[in-house]
Design a protein that fits this description.
This protein is mainly beta. The protein has one domain: Sandwich (Immunoglobulin-like). The chain has one helix and 15 strands. Strands 4, 7, 8, 9, 12, 13 and 14 form a seven-stranded antiparallel β-sheet that branches. Strands 2, 3, 5, 6 and 10 form a five-stranded antiparallel β-sheet that branches. The radius of gyration is 26 Å and the shape is elongated.
């Protein structure tokens, strides 16, 4: 009788120990944070191929965790404005101002907006998409070369993104260029590959 009772005590203690270990394992946590060594600390961007309209990394303004993308155009032609939408998985990389003092979530890098209001430059966010419209007023100011940087946008790495995660990045189909003469025309903007590192 004593041996059986002693055995029962051991079995009960073992079950309690096992239950305690399982309870501390974190398996029941609804949103467990990944270990720090698995968390990304930077954004890596590979520029797209080609020489048409494209988003390329602006090395002079980008930091390890903030990617600044410059919209560049083809080698030929001049224009007076652009309109585009760029989408990203903002749970992993969110649109932010390039400089804290900026008014908009993008920068005009080329077009002459004049000194009087209203200036034709506006950014609007809708979910994961940032819409940007920039245009010169009238035809007094000369059209600008399209080969340089036309506009810039920035993406900030978000917390707890796992290393080596591909981050969705795309341009909406309604992008348009306002050439030096005539009405606005559709344009296709190439994007590269964005990865959390």
């Amino acid at each position: 009788m004593k041996r059986i009772q002693f055995s029962g005590i051991i079995e009960t203690a073992s079950l309690l120990t096992l239950a305690g270990l399982l309870g501390c394992s974190g398996g029941n946590s609804p949103n467990p944070e990944p270990p720090s060594m698995l968390i990304a600390t930077s954004l890596s961007y590979t520029d797209p191929a080609g020489t048409g309209y494209r988003f390329v990394r602006d090395a002079s303004l980008s930091t390890s965790d903030k990617l600044v993308l410059a919209l560049r155009g083809p080698e030929q032609g001049t224009g007076r404005g652009v309109s585009f939408g760029v989408s990203a998985d903002t749970t992993k990389a969110a649109f932010v101002k390039i400089n804290a003092t900026d008014v908009e979530l993008a920068q005009n890098a080329s077009f002459n907006l004049g000194v009087t209001e209203p200036k034709l430059f506006k950014c609007v966010t809708n979910g994961d998409t940032l819409k940007v419209s920039i245009a010169q007023k009238g035809t007094t100011a000369p059209a600008q070369p399209l080969s340089g940087t036309l506009a810039r946008v920035a993406l900030q790495l978000q917390p707890n993104v796992i290393k080596n995660t591909n981050i969705a990045l795309s341009v909406t189909a309604d992008a348009r260029i306002l050439p030096s003469s005539g009405n606005s025309q559709p344009m296709t903007i190439a994007v590269g590959t964005l990865v959390a590192r």
